[in-house]
Amino acid sequence: MPTRSNPVTRHVGCAGVRAGAPSGPRWLRIALVVALVLALIAHLYGLYTPGEPGASEWFPNSDKVLHFFGFAAPTLLAMLVVRHWWPALVFAAHAVISELVQAWLLPGRDGDIWDVAADVSGVVVATAAWLAWVLGRPPDGTKK
Known about the structure:
Layout: H1 26-48, H2 62-82, H3 87-104, H4 113-135
């Protein structure tokens, strides 16, 4: 039975590791994992801490910028670490869930559909960047 070619996972090496994954020195993988853990801590802290009375924004809608980068960074790092696109689905679902939790369960916080839009925009941009990097690499992992 012929196998189907998937452009995202088509670059498979002899050990089953996709060429779209970060290859190189071990310290690079460790650095990516550490960066992901730190990004997830900041991500969860920003989303689930109770609101502070009188908190102000740096500029109008600055929270949307924070939402964008708060989802873009961990999404991209997660895709690099796990070497696949599925973390984008997890973060997109989390964008909706986090706003529902803020609206219903966190004192001083409220859910906002525009926050979901900013979150999902970050996920989409991170996924596009990851796909551009994966699809731009030759199958053997050498530079073009």
